[in-house]
Structures are given as structure tokens and as C-alpha cells.
Amino acid sequence: MIEFRNVTKYYGNxxxxxxxxxxxxxxxxxxxIVGPTGMGKTTLLKLIYREELPTKGKVIVxxxxxxxxxxxxxxxxxxxxxxxxxxxxxxxxxxxxENVAFAMEVLGYSKKEIRNRVxxxxxxxxxxxxxxxxPNELSGGEQQRTSIARALVNNPPILIADEPTGNLDMATSWxxxxxxxxxxxxxxxxxxxxxNKEIVNAMRQRVIGLYNGRIVRDEYNGSYE
Amino acid sequence: MRVLSIGYILREAWRxxxxxRISSFAAIGIIAFMLVLLGIVGYIFNxxxxxxxxxxxxxEIIVYLNDNLKAEERKSLKxxxxxxxxxxxxxxxxxxxxxxxxxxxxxxNKLVLEIIGENPLPDSFEIKLIDRxxxxxxxxxxxxxxxxxxxDVPLDIANRLNSLIKWVEIGGTLVILVFIGVSLFIxxxxxxxxxxxxxxxxxxxxxxxxxxxxxxGPFILEGVLCGFFGGIIGAMVFxxxxxxxxxxxxxxxxxxxxxTNFNPFTSSLGLVLFGMMVGGIGSAIFxxxxxxx
Lengths: 225, 293
Known about the structure:
The complex is a heterodimer.
Chain A: E1 2-10, E2 16-25, E3 30-34, H1 41-48, E4 56-61, E5 64-65, H2 71-79, E6 81-85, H3 96-105, H4 111-124, H5 140-152, E7 158-162, H6 170-185, E8 189-194, H7 197-203, E9 206-211, E10 214-219
Parallel strand pairs in A: 3-8, 3-9, 6-7, 7-8
Antiparallel strand pairs in A: 1-2, 1-4, 4-5, 9-10
Helix pairs in contact in A: 3-4, 3-5, 4-5, 5-6
Chain B: H1 2-19, H2 21-57, E1 60-65, H3 71-82, E2 87-93, H4 95-105, H5 110-116, E3 124-129, H6 135-143, E4 148-152, H7 155-195, H8 199-207, H9 212-248, H10 254-257, H11 264-290
Helix pairs in contact in B: 1-9, 2-7, 2-9, 2-11, 7-11, 9-11
């Protein structure tokens, strides 16, 4: 599903973010990318959704070398990815419903289809009753569930999550992880960057450890350290 | 899909305009203000230009006739002159009439009239031209006509006026161009600033895989709408100002009020279209800066 082949990434200012990184993620896997802040986790995710291009090497998503995509093909790639961020990236002047619907509206879906799918996905994340609330009326966990609903509404085969629990307390983090686990069990491949030890240790999933831009370990049923 | 996307673009543009009301109002207000200024500059330019043109088009060629010209000779000469290209009107001034006017002009100056004594003036034609540019051509054509004693062509004044008009045109065009540039800069920046709060929207659009028209359409249309409303308001204020100016100020200066080819409809249309265009350009600049790749 996702493959990195000898990927090296330097930023314009000469900072080395990733060095000779290679790994493969199969369909339906749940992978944690762990490591201290500034070790290349976010860069690795950005390379998957083509926010960044590698300096060297190849990134293959769904069998396609995405380093060679044209801009309209990047849009097509992103429709197959759901992306969740630490800061939720919700639009403050739109309701929960509108925030989720937005991801479908900009792809040109009909109102009817939008209504059906947004309703269903809000039901999954348990926010149907808060459809008409604005983000500032929600708790952090609810905001993150809204952003997960938005990421899932277009049925992507892959979900990318960059520190999705970074702004949440422990109880709420667990709640979010329960959702992600459930989504993963329905076949969605999940790649999640985190430095939350307890979560990683409790989930017993594949763990890829990054240190100074290099993969220092790759373990199935792994733990944080 | 087509119909859907047009509906989506209209809906989103309207939503953007009405949601961030304060920044939309500010943008529309500033656009209206700039367009009013632009209209005023254009109006003044037009007024000055038309005034000069009006004055120079009032210049006449005077033809003095031979003393012994018979009535039918005079008639055929008048017809010949009238048929020259560029001649608008030929008026016969008999010597008595000319003398009357002369005396009228020098009414206060007894000495001049005493020295001259008898009426020395010949019969003459006053030739009005369609416009000043025919001055040379007509005076050339008159030169070889029989029955003419002398021709008085205000060529010197005409040339001076012509060069003055040329400079006014160049200067006015420059001022207007600079002004268009300035309003383009200000309006497009106002639009851009009113969109700054929506960079996140743009970012999310790209992250969920929206393409070209779905991202650009609503923003461009919103900018165009801002320009449109700014243009409507600006045109209304501008026309009101022109009306007041004409009514209370211009009417006391008959020299100016002679001929302006100011047309409220076309100038309003121009302002609205310019506002829309610049609004669209402002949006495009915003998108260019904040859309990745």
C-alpha cells in the first residue's frame, strides 16, 4: 500500500530530515511512527500525502510513484487519503456538519449524497447530536473526532494521522484510539505519528522508530522503547 | 457535475462574502472609494479636454471679399466654400454689419473711431469648421478661390491650442494610468487581506484533494462580487457627486459647461467592470501566493 525506497529528504535550508529510509506498509496495517520531536516523523507523513517531495528515493502509494505526479494527480492521490492533524484544522466559522461536508463539497458531490454520508460518518464518531455546533463549542476530543469524520467521509483506503492525540488528555486520547482501532479493523490502513508511549505500548501494533532521520527499528507488536 | 460545480461556486462565494461581513464590507467600501476617486480624476480630465476642444472648435476662418463682387458671384463663392470638406457653416457678414460690430467693440475708445472715420471694412464670410483639425486644409482650399481679397486664419492660436491639448491629453492619460495602477494595487491588496483569514480553508481544500475550479472558483467569484458591489456603490456616489458639481458649481462657469461628452451610463459601467476585474485580479494574486504547486 505504501512503500518508501531509500528516501532522503533535505529541506531547502540544508537541514536533513530523513536519510535513506526504506519500509513497506501492507494493506490493513496499523503502523506507529515514533521518535522524539524533530526526528522526521512529520516529514515522513508529508512525503506520503505529497506535501513534500523527497530529495532522493521513491515514495510509492497504491502502486504509483507519487514523486512523479502532476498537480492534478496530487489531488487525486489525496482523495484516497484521510489526513488527521494534532491541531484538528477545522474551519472555525463552519459547524461540525459543514466542516465534514466541506470535504465532499469541494469534490463536487451532490447535496443528497453529502447528507447521507456525512450523517453516517458523524454517527460513527458519535457526534450526530452536535452536528450544528461550531468548533469552539466542542471539547478537544470532539474536535478531533470531527476531523476524523472529515478524513473518513470520502472512504479513503489510507488514514494518515500526525500526532492526533497530541492536544488531548489521556482519557480523550484513548477514546480517539478506540475509533482508530475500529476504523482499522474495517480494513483502512493507518499510519500514525506519535510520541505517546502509553498508547503505543498498549496497542501492540507495528512500530517504526525514527532517530535523527533514520529508521532505528521496525517491530511488529512493538512498544515505544 | 458541471451544474453542480457552478452551484457550489456560487454558494461558496456568497457564503464567503456574507460570513466575514466586516472584512467584506471594508473591502467593498475601499473599492467603492477608490472607484469614486478614479471616476473623479477621469471626469476632470474629460472636462478639461472637452473645454479646450470646445474653445478650439469655436475658432473661425474669416474671408474678406473683393469690393466689387456681384450678388450671384458672392452666392456661388459661398456655395463653393460650403462644399469644402470640414466646413460646418458659412455666414455672410456685410460691411455695414462688420462696421457695427467694430464700433461695438471699440465703444469706449472714441479716438480709434475718430481716426478711422469712414467704414473701411469689406464684406466677409465667417467660416465655422467641423473641428479644428480642418483649419489647415480649409485655408489651403480657400487660397485659390476667385473673389477673395484676404484670408484671416487663426492658425497660430489653433496650433498653440493644439499643442496645449496634446499635452493635456498626455498628462491626463498619464495621471489616469497612474491612478488605475494605484487603485489596482490597493484594491487587489484589500481583497487579498480580506482572504487572509481563509488560508486554512485553502489548505484544507488542497488536503482533501479539491482541484482547480473547486478551489479557485469561489475565491475568484467572491473577489469579482466584491468588485461588483464596490463598483455599484462607487458609481452611485460618483454620479451623485457629478450631478451636484454640475448643478451647483459648473453652472456658474459657462466656459466649462459648453461641451462635455460625459455619459453617466458608460462611465458607471466602466467603473463597475473595472471593480470586478480588479477584484478578480486580487483573488488571483491571493491564490497564486497561497496555493502550493
